[in-house]
Structure formats: C-alpha cells, structure tokens
Specification:
The protein is mainly alpha-helical and 181 residues long. The protein has helices spanning 15-35, 44-62, 69-89, 103-138, 161-169, 177-180. It has a domain at 11-94 and 101-138. Keywords: Membrane, Transmembrane, Transmembrane helix.
C-alpha cells in the first residue's frame, strides 16, 4: 500500500493559517500577561509584540504545508516564549514567590498552544480545499474556435428593416395625461 502524495497548499490558502498564527500569538501573550496581573502592553512593548506576531504569521505563511501540526506547534510555542520574554521586559510578574512561572500558567500556555495549533491546522486544510475548489471552478480553458468556410450572415436587401422591427416592438404609450398632472 502506498501513501497518498501530499498536496501542495495554494499560495492564497497559506495566508489564513499565517494570519491566525500571528493573531493567536499576540492574543495569548496579552491574555496570559493580563491573567497574571499585568496590564495591557503599551508603547514600544505593544509595537514589539505586534512585530513579533507579524513575523511569526509570515513564517507560518511561508511553510509549504500549513496544515502540518508539528510545525504550527513549534512556531506557536516559540511565539509564546518570545511573547512572554517581551512582556517580561515591561514588568510582567509571576504569581510564584521565587519569580518562576507557576505550573498552572505553564499548563494553560501549553493547552492554548496545542489547541491553537490543532485549530489552525484544521483551518489550513479547509482554506486549502476551498482554494483548490475556487481555482478549479474559475479555471478558463480556452479552446480554439473552428473556422468554417460558409458565411453565417447574409446581407439584407434593406439594412434598416431590423430597426423598423425593433421600433415596432417598443411601446410608445405613456400614462394618461390626466394622471400625470
């Protein structure tokens, strides 16, 4: 038994998982920061977090198979580590006494990364399928038209006859004058 060949993801379908991975990276980082007692990032920290999410989203969009769960898992995990370090510069504090992240926070990050990678992989497969259908449906196959030697149109003796027929089919009647006033 042979395995099925992997289909290449169309370029347009790569944008959906890339955007989702970038948005999820920033959202999880801000949510975890807020849950741990920190406020919303502002100023340079927010700009750097946006730059991080755009970079990771672009990285995911360049992956040949955007539905690969392992690569998405790795990118999202690195994104969480970098986002955590980035927000740590801005004064992110950990709930534990010695400054290390708690087991609950690590479990929450891990669960969010695994669920996020699974959802993005499923969305990537769906986007690739929809993209392939749209490409197939809008493909324009051009077939050459066969030229025949017979003439399809015959010249008329009275070329304005068609205009007379057209004007005879149009109604020139309007509403009664009494109703128009």
């Amino acid at each position: 038994m042979g395995t099925q060949p992997r289909r290449r993801t169309p370029p347009a379908a790569r944008l959906v998982p890339g955007a989702a991975a970038g948005a999820l990276t920033a959202t999880l980082a801000v949510a975890a920061h807020g849950t741990a007692g920190g406020g919303l990032p502002s100023g340079p920290t927010a700009a750097l977090l946006a730059l991080l999410s755009i970079t990771l989203g672009s990285l995911v969009a360049t992956i040949r198979d955007t539905a690969d769960f392992r690569s998405l898992l790795a990118v999202l995990a690195v994104g969480q580590l970098l986002g955590h370090a980035l927000l740590g510069v801005g004064g992110h504090s950990h709930p534990s006494a010695e400054g290390a992240p708690s087991v609950l926070m690590l479990a929450a990050h891990l669960a969010a990364v695994v669920v996020g990678a699974a959802l993005i992989a499923a969305g990537g497969r769906l986007a690739a399928a929809v993209s392939r259908v749209l490409v197939a449906a809008t493909r324009c196959d051009r077939h050459p038209v066969a030229v025949t030697s017979s003439t399809a149109f015959v010249s008329a003796d009275q070329p304005l006859q068609s205009l007379r027929f057209l004007s005879a089919t149009l109604s020139h009647r309007g509403p009664p004058v009494g109703l128009a006033r």
